[in-house]
Amino acid sequence: MPQNKLSARAHARTSAAALEGNLRALSRRAGVPLLLPVKAGAYGHGLDVVARIAAGHPDVWGLAVATPQEAGTLAGLNPGKPVVLLTPPRPAEVPVLADLGVRLPVASLEEAENLPPHARAHLKVDTGMNRLGARPEDAVRIGLRLAERGVLEGAYTHFATADEPDLAFAWEQFRRFQQVLAQLPPLLAHASNGGGILSLGALPGMGLARPGLASYGFAPAHLKDVLPLTPIMTLEAEITHLHMARAGETVSYGGLWQATRDTLLATVSLGYADGYPRNATGQAQVIVAGERRPVVGRICMDQCMVDVTGLAVAVGESVRFWGPDSITVGDVAGWGGTNEYEVLTGLGTRVERLGAE
């Protein structure tokens, strides 16, 4: 753990080996290279950490982000891979992003006409998500205009239900996308998210796939056995204080937990401001000195308390909140009444992101 005088007290470590293995497996199943989504700080894992790992991976074609700000940050990291922006920029941002080499989403003739001649565009087709993009009946005209201008590089759509057991609508979306592609010149097409890769497998005519949370080791329950994906993050925080709560005393706000015996408590430097769910109060557990121990009392903004009675622990030692072979992110999400996406992307800036072999 870093020992400089002002170092962070909570750390999220990303396993390069686990990420590389996930990407390899997903690319093999999709049958194409990957456009790896690294939006929202690489799903909470740290944009710079994940970009460095992905930069050298042979199965990664490029990196995808959700906002112009993320695109600018990623371009500044010089990942050595194309950067694709998936959501519309403001008109004034278009030339800036084009100058950085960022691939731009286009979903209207106006956007197509406003692209600089050196831009590279990915036509966004709305096949049923009803969030962003051009409807299929309009997308062909827009795509042909982009091709006329010499700026059309790719086209993409997004599955709304590919992670659900019923795949009928996912296949219908793909059919609509294929109909658009059939009327355009050859380009780099991409549709499958992680759910699509796992449930639909290799799709004809696609040049890329975009596995989001699956890249980081997570799959819907009914798809977990399709590929051997490994969660890549271990979250730990330091013990900052040890003290005894006497029998009958309460702990933390609201006095929700009362000691039934003299209890040795460790105060640990992670709380809901760091993204650990406050709603996990009363259910959360952690790993201390190799043992699973309960978090007691209400989870606070900056810290939480753990029953460490009978353990040989000291201030400065690490407590594990989740990791591949212990408590999972899914466990924490369940305790907090949320999902893995929210837990991971909710990790705050006080949690230092670190890479690991």
What is the topology?
Elements: E1 10-15, H1 16-30, E2 34-37, H2 39-43, H3 47-55, E3 60-65, H4 68-76, E4 83-85, H5 94-99, E5 104-106, H6 109-114, E6 121-124, H7 136-149, E7 152-156, H8 168-181, E8 188-190, H9 194-200, E9 233-245, E10 250-251, E11 257-258, E12 263-268, E13 285-288, E14 291-296, E15 304-307, E16 318-322, H10 329-336, H11 340-345, E17 351-356
Overview of the structural elements:
Helices cover 28% and strands 23% of the residues. The protein is elongated. By secondary structure, the chain is of the alpha/beta class. The chain folds into two domains: 31-222, TIM Barrel, CATH 3.20.20.10; 233-356, Beta Barrel (Lyase, Ornithine Decarboxylase, Chain A, domain 1), CATH 2.40.37.10. The model has no long low-confidence stretch (mean pLDDT 97).
Compact description:
By secondary structure, this protein is of the alpha/beta class.
Q: What structural category characterises the helix and strand content? A: alpha/beta
Task: Tell me the CATH architecture of the largest domain.
Answer: Alpha-Beta Barrel
Count of extended strands: 17
**How much helical structure, as a percent, in the residues?**
25-40%
What is the CATH superfamily label of the largest domain?
Alanine racemase
Main sheet characteristics: 8 strands, mixed
Our count of helices gives: 11
CATH class of the largest domain: Alpha Beta
Total domain modules = 2
Termini distance?
14 Å
Order of helices and strands: EHEHHEHEHEHEHEHEHEEEEEEEEHHE
CATH topology of the largest domain: TIM Barrel
What portion of the residues fall into strands of 2 or more residues?
A: 15-25%
Q: What's the Cα radius of gyration?
A: 23 Å
Mean pLDDT: 97
Uncertain runs are: none
